Structures are given as structure tokens and as C-alpha cells.
Amino acid sequence: MRARHPFARRTVREGRVAVTADVDNVVTTVTVRGSWGRSLSRDAFLALKKSLGAHPDAVIIDLCDLDDPHAASALTWITARRVADAMDPPVHVVACAPPASVLADRLERLGAAYYLPTYADLTLARAAATTARPHTDQRRLALPPEPDTPSLARNLVTDACAAWRLPGEVLYPARLVMSELAGNAVEHARTPIVVVVLRRDEGLHLVVNDRDPRLPTLLPAPKEPPGDLWNARGQGLRTVQAASAAWGALPTAEGKMVWATIFPS
After folding, report:
1. Is 238 helix (H, G, I), strand (E, B) or coil?
2. Three-state DSSP class for 44?
3. ω into residue 220 within 30 of 0, thus cis?
4. Residues 6 or more apart in contact with residue 175 via CB below 8 angstroms
5. Which domains does the chain have, with CATH numbers?
6. Residue 195 contacts residue 145 (beta carbons within 8 Å)
7. Helix (H, G, I), strand (E, B), or coil: what is residue 261?
8. Which of 14, 166, 185, 256 is the most buried (most CB within 10 A)?
9. Within 13 Å and on the Cβ side, how many CA atoms surround 210?
């Protein structure tokens, strides 16, 4: 057998990270493909940070197509799990990787303190993620793209705050933010939407899901106030940004979800 040259290079596959949110199950999947290296490490870190920022019930890290022969990425996935465990409420993190891979073996041998549940394929990981922590403090409503949709979405926030006895300093900004998110979806996506209100400790997590894959963009602030404030367009996300602790958007299988989190000031 010919010995491998010490400077021979293995084939490097271009790395790619994809994030997909599942609004129905409040689960986000982060898929990492290609050869592990500095660039893919950075992209994976940013994707995980963005996914955890949306505070789903669970995050699935799909490593089935990751080329990592030395398990160099293991610390990244373990760190994500530990960060998620420290959130309030905690986010359940699971992974899937080929059972015979070096990475799966490394994750299994790290011990209880660094334990990351790892499954053989995405189907098993998804089943574990969707059944681990059912979310009971949740309100959801499917709405058409009609003019009164923002009002109905605001009412869902009001009902949730009343049921969970949340204070007005959560209710009023949450109603404002939900109105903006739902109004943007009606105006720009023009598709049926699903609005979701979830309790997050003493605050709320708001989600608006539509079937338009285009992610929203925060426009630069106008240099001069518009002549007619009632007709000013494109500044709704600035209201969301100002009134919420955090906000963002993630692609879904059929479009996108835009979310925002409100906490007492």
C-alpha cells in the first residue's frame, strides 16, 4: 500500500449553513454541510446565535452532511447546548449525525456534563425535539390577509396577558409590536398568516408566520420627517425594534416567521 504523502490534501467541500423554523412545533433546524473549517465555523456560530435568539422550544443541529473527520466541531455544538440550557425557559438542543462518524462517537464520549442528545438521522432528532418540552403557555390564531387582521392579532395578545396575568408594561408594547408585525405581513406578504403568542417568564414572545420567503429589512431612518405621518411607510420595523427586547426573522419551509420578545421594562 502506498503511504499517503504528509502534505496531501483531502478534498474540501464548500461549507453551507441553513436555518429553517417550524412554527407549528416551535422548533428551529440548523443544517451544517461541507468541510469543517474557519469559515464554516463562523457561519455555524452566527446561525446558532440567530436561532437561539428567536427562543424556540427546541433547536435541531443537523450534522448528517458535515465533513469533520477529526470531530473538531464538537465544542461548538456542546457550547450551543450549554447556552441553550441557561436560557429562561431552557431551549432543548438535539443533534443528528451518522452513527459511525468520528463526530458522533466524540459527542457520545464527552460525558454527562457535556451531554448533547445525538440521533442517527433527522427524523429521530425531530421526534425527540418536538416531544421533549410541550409548550402549554401558548396562544395561536390563523388569520387571512385582511384589513382587520392586525386588530385580531392585538386581541390575541390581550387575551394572553389576561390569562397569564402579565402587567401593562408587557401588554401595551406587545400589542403595538404585534400590530406592526401582522400589518407588515398583510401589506407585504399578502398571504394567510399564523400569529403565535408564547409566554417567556414574565414576558412574551410574539411570532407572525406568512408564506412569503422574503425576509424583512430594517430601512435607514429618514433624514427628514415625512410630510404626512399617516402615510409614512417602511418604518414599522423601527417601532418593533424600539419596543422589543429583541426581534428577528427566520425562513420556514413555506415562507418565513418574524418574531419579537417583550419583557417588562
Report:
1. helix
2. helix
3. no
4. 154, 157, 158
5. 16-132 (3.30.750.24), 138-262 (3.30.565.10)
6. no
7. strand
8. 185
9. 24
Single-letter amino acid, residue 135: H
pTM for this prediction: 0.80
CA separation for the pair 84, 115 (Å, rounded): 13
φ/ψ bin of 166: left (φ > 0), alpha (ψ from -120 to 50), beta (otherwise) = beta
Reported as a single tens digit per residue, the pLDDT across 87-136 is: 888 899 999 999 989 999 998 888 656 789 999 999 999 998 887 655 56
The per-residue pLDDT for range 151-174, each reduced to its tens digit, is 999 999 999 999 999 999 999 999
Q: Which three cell numbers stand for residue 228?
A: 404626512
**Is residue 219 predicted with pLDDT exceeding 80?**
no
Residues in the chain: 265
Return the number of other C-beta atoms located less than 10 Å from residue 97's C-beta. Answer: 30
Q: Which of 135, 119, 107, 10 has its CA nearest to residue 62?
A: 119
CA distance 95 to 124: 10
